Amino acid sequence: MKDKKALTRERIFQAAASALLLRGPQQPGVAEVMDAAGLTVGGFYAHFTSRDALMLEVFDQLLRKRRDLMALIDPALSGSERRTLAASFYLSRKHRDATDAGCPLPSTLGALPQLSDTYRALLAEHLEILSAQMCDRPEDADKALADLALMVGGLALARALGAGDLSDRVLRAAKSAVI
Question: Which of 65, 73, 109, 168 has its CA 20 to 30 A from that of 99?
Fold first, then answer.
């Protein structure tokens, strides 16, 4: 069982993760995160050295969670089949509409140029590992990267449009390009 400090840290982390997924890593301040966690600002620094350290950890963990989900797809399937299955979920209405869960990239990519190089390094690491999970041979890695770019871009556009016919068309078009 986790002790009280670990549970409190987890509440802060989850509040920050929700904020990052909704608005990206630049928006949420310490006061907002702590309020969402039901805590006072004064306790924040007992758990994290800075707001940036918290958001970087959240970004890293959210990316790892996406990779872990990809790893659950049967490795006996071909890379193309794994990408097709991934696209079927990733480019779905359910994932589009779950803005407080899922992939952090649509809400984060626009902010990365203004953030520290550490964010870009984490993104690069994530993309390299994920693309390797999505292909059978190293020479197929660029196809996997292209499919990842198409999926993230398609989801970002669909989320920006909100639920509706054009958004659904974006999801279908991107999915058909991967499949």
Answer: 73
